[in-house]
Write a structure and sequence with these properties.
The protein is of the alpha+beta class. Helices cover 38% and strands 12% of the residues.
């Protein structure tokens, strides 16, 4: 007997025609077609994408170009495949240590998980969510191969999905050994070397199979960020990565702990002999710095894959002037044992870097030319003093008329001296800064409090660690030229800090923007009146010390001391309303060390810096009008911040003779006697 009943049929028809289920039922044909189309299109997409994947038995094609353009669209450098070095090897030809080290560095469980390492991916996702951004973490070697061979460097959720789909398809098509072989032949190790074979020859002049465990770990550690871990520039960071990889090789069973410890003690730096590059670049150090920023923006895959056009802020016209000034300055100062120099210039209004010369000769190994002095920490000497005076002026601890004591003084046991071991007696703060006297600068630092000075310097752009001791007031703590120019940018921009920047836009190979600088990070650090006080003093520096410049600039020199009365570094910083520039000179050696020199900062001002400033465009001559908040006080011509105009010196000092300017008013913290040749040009001594 049938169980059918009219009531049951009506209930089923009602269930099908109402609610979400009813909607699906009524559209079941269209939904089935859509699902089939989705899977069909997905299959076609995967098949289309994989057609470009290299066969493991065929020579892997190197990356596409990365073209760097200056602000006017002129080519700074073209990283083309023709300029890159590549050696195609089988896995067996790579030996055991190289592949094991790369696995330890990049994917320790490569042979034990699928195309996606789910726990690592979830951890990376958690970091993305908590940091509200997308990073490159959690990727397997299979995913990395997809990134550098098939996808753009864009960071987005759809791109991550594409990466996972292609990685899964890749592991369906190739074995783990084949995927690892492709990766090891394709991944970028820096210095133009693509693949493990090229890296072994480039860095150690040997075959990959002959790498020691230490050398293999050293190379594997570069993959994460080849520019940021460049051993020429950042060997200490590279060594840390090497030790991390060696630990990983122990955990994966590739090495015993004893073998890893022996490898860690190996002197890889001494064994490294990077092969000369045929690189053609009009600003190689600048390009290297931009590459580190690309690695931060997109991950190292952006460098490995290429296919990018990078629009930068550099001005190749000014770059040529800077490069020539550095080279000529080094020649002028050869008598002082100077063999190297660096220069950085930027637009103070928007922070855009205009010229970047990291050494006198990039290809000169005898001076370590590939080492970028712009990003190296050095003692700034007296060029640090404007931060000290600015902090005290801003906080109303002193005025430019305040009388300071330039005489031998013990500051709780610290007794600074000047290069001449003499004092000028009681002098106003303006004169103390103009003549760059050390003892008054330390006095001001003590009055203000060095922690306050350091806080202001950090706010203005000095990111390096500054010791709170009083010697920092006269340049006893290291800074980089990059951050020093950032600090002076605040003076040049009338108290407003705009972070130095170098990239305006990045396009992919189809001219689609993958990065666009949207805004500048502006912060008011000083008022225009506060900044103007320092500028008003430093505008007279070039005349006081006879630099021979053809336009008005505010400037300050610096000369460091090694504690034995010898000079490792000489500096000069300069600015006007259109440009802020800093330069350093010294003596460097291939290993990053070097000797001492004889030239004070003032010699740099009348040679190297003069060559640069006197060849700037005529329109880079802007100067400042006196801002509101500046008053005259104490019945004289001195200027004061509003509210301090009645802080008159009492009693007034008796006039003291002004010493004739000697070679340098710059800092020599040890206070040992130093040569004081006259400022006017004289025959240069011949080095012995």
């Amino acid at each position: 007997m049938s169980s059918f009943s009219p009531a049951g049929a009506r209930a089923r028809r009602k269930w099908r025609s109402h609610g979400l289920t009813g909607w699906f039922w009524s559209h079941r044909v269209a939904i089935a077609i859509a699902v089939a189309a989705f899977f069909g299109l997905s299959t076609l997409y995967v098949a289309w994408a994989l057609k470009d994947l290299p066969d493991p038995n065929v020579n892997v094609l190197a990356a596409g170009d990365i073209v760097f353009l200056d602000r006017h669209g002129q080519v700074i450098e073209d990283w083309s495949p023709a300029g890159h070095y590549h050696v195609n090897l089988t896995l067996a030809q790579m030996g055991s240590y190289g592949p094991s080290a790369v696995l330890a560095a990049e994917d320790r469980n490569f042979y034990h998980h699928g195309a996606i390492d789910l726990p690592s991916t979830l951890r990376a996702l958690w970091v993305d969510v908590t940091n509200r951004g997308l990073n490159e973490g959690g990727s397997t070697i299979t995913q990395q191969l997809v990134k550098i061979q098939l996808l753009t460097p864009e960071k987005s959720v759809p791109r991550k999905v594409h990466e996972m789909v292609l990685a899964i398809a890749l592991e369906q098509r190739f074995s783990k050994d084949q995927i690892l072989t492709m990766y090891l032949n394709r991944v970028y190790f820096g210095h133009g070397a693509y693949g493990l074979g090229a890296a072994a020859r480039t860095y150690f002049n040997k075959e990959a199979k002959d790498l020691t465990p230490a050398q293999a770990a050293f190379l594997a550690g570069l993959i994460q960020a080849p520019t940021a871990y460049d051993p020429v520039l950042h060997f200490d960071l590279t060594k840390q990565r090497e030790e991390y990889v060696l630990d990983g090789m122990v955990s994966t069973g590739a090495l015993t702990r004893q073998q890893a410890d022996t490898a860690a003690a190996e002197d890889v730096k001494k064994e490294m002999h990077i092969q000369a590059s045929a690189r053609q670049s009009k600003a190689p150090h600048f390009v290297d710095y931009v590459l580190t920023q690309l690695e931060k923006l997109f991950g190292s895959a952006a460098i490995q894959q290429g296919g990018l056009v990078v629009h930068t802020t550099l001005d190749l016209g000014l770059q040529a002037v800077a490069d020539q000034a550095v080279k000529q300055g080094v020649r002028d100062l050869h008598w002082a044992y100077i063999n190297n120099a660096a220069l950085l210039a930027a637009d103070p209004k928007n922070g855009e870097i205009l010229a970047w010369v990291g050494s006198a000769d990039f290809n000169n190994d005898s001076i370590g030319g590939q080492y970028d002095v712009v990003t190296a920490e050095r003692q700034p000497g007296s060029s640090f003093k404007p931060y000290v005076y600015e902090a005290a002026l801003r906080d109303h601890k002193i005025t430019l008329a305040t009388i300071l004591k330039d005489e031998q003084t013990s500051f709780n046991g610290y007794t600074p001296h000047d290069f001449d071991n003499r004092g000028m007696g009681p002098i106003p703060a303006r004169k103390a800064l103009l003549f760059s006297r050390n003892i008054p600068a330390v006095e001001v630092g003590q009055m203000e409090g060095m922690n306050n000075v350091i806080n202001l310097a950090h706010d203005m752009g000095i990111n390096s660690h500054l010791d709170p001791g009083l010697s920092t007031a006269i340049g006893g703590s290291d800074v980089t030229l990059l951050e020093h120019v950032q600090g002076y940018e605040v003076f040049a921009n009338q108290g407003q800090r705009v972070d130095l920047n170098e990239i305006t836009r990045v396009d992919d190979s189809h001219n689609n923007p993958v990065y666009q600088r949207t805004s500048m990070n502006n912060r008011n650090i000083l008022t225009p009146a506060e900044a103007y006080l320092i500028t008003d003093v430093l505008k007279n520096y070039q005349n006081q010390w006879g630099f021979g410049w053809n336009r008005q600039m505010a400037s300050k020199t610096g000369t460091s001391d090694n504690g034995h009365g010898q000079i490792p570094d000489s500096w000069i910083m300069a600015y006007n309303a259109n440009i802020v520039v800093g330069t350093w000179v010294g003596n460097t050696a291939p290993n990053g060390g070097g000797g001492t020199i004889l030239a004070f900062g003032e010699r740099v001002g009348s040679t190297l810096m003069a060559h640069f400033i006197n060849n700037l465009p005529a329109n880079m001559s802007g100067w400042y009008s006196q801002p509101s908040g500046i008053l005259h006080g104490c019945g004289g011509s001195e200027i004061f911040l509003a509210g301090t105009e009645r802080m008159c010196p009492s009693p007034s000092p008796s006039p003291s003779p002004s010493p004739s300017p000697s070679e340098s008013p710059s800092v020599l913290p040890s206070g040992l006697p130093s040569p004081t040749p006259i400022l006017s040009p004289s025959p240069s001594p011949t080095p012995t």
